[in-house]
Amino acid sequence: MAIGINLSDDDDWDDDDSSIFSPTRKGSWWVSSKSDPRFNASGRGYVGSFTCPNEARAFFEKKAKELGVPVPDDLEFGYMKD
User: Fold this and answer.
1) Residue-level pLDDT at 20
2) Closest CA relative to residue 58, chosen from 34, 33, 29
3) Could you give the C-alpha distances from 50 to 2, 17, 64, in angstroms and in order?
4) Is the distance from CB of 33 to CB of 75 less than 8 angstroms?
5) Using CA atoms, how far apart are residues 48 and 65, in angstroms rounded to an integer?
6) What CA–CA distance (Å, rounded) separates 15 from 8?
7) For tag attachment on the chain, is the N or C end more exposed, with fewer CB atoms within 10 Å?
8) Is residue 45, in this structure, part of any structural domain at all?
9) How far apart are the first and last CA of the chain?
10) Tens of pLDDT along the chain (82 residues)?
11) Which H helix or E strand runs over 42?
12) Cα 8 from Cα 50, distance rounded (Å)
């Protein structure tokens, strides 16, 4: 008996990506900081692979530049796949 996963029915799968560990699933992300709540935010984008989603990273890098301060050391991120 063979067991397999059929990915052909999954609309979120990115066939052009060669790594199964890259963020290719749509979902929700959030970032938070206890020391500087101006960096608290959430959004949607591609998530996965135990890495900070690109949209979240773009947010806090832009916020740091706007505020003229470094990204807080206690900044944490999380995500949930759809």
Assistant:
1) 55
2) 29
3) 29, 16, 23
4) yes
5) 26
6) 10
7) N
8) yes
9) 30
10) 344 333 334 444 444 444 556 677 999 999 999 999 999 999 999 999 899 999 999 999 999 999 999 999 999 999 999 8
11) strand 41-47
12) 24
Q: Is residue 1 part of a domain?
A: no
Residue 61 covered by a domain = yes
Question: Are the beta carbons of 80 and 28 closer than 8 angstroms?
Answer: yes
How many domains does one find in the chain? 1
Query: Cα separation of 74 and 19, whole Å?
Result: 29
Q: What is the per-residue pLDDT for 24?
A: 78
pLDDT for the residue numbered 21: 61
Range of the domain at 73: 25-81
12 in a structural domain = no
CA torsion, points 47, 50, 54, 56, in degrees to nearest 10? 90
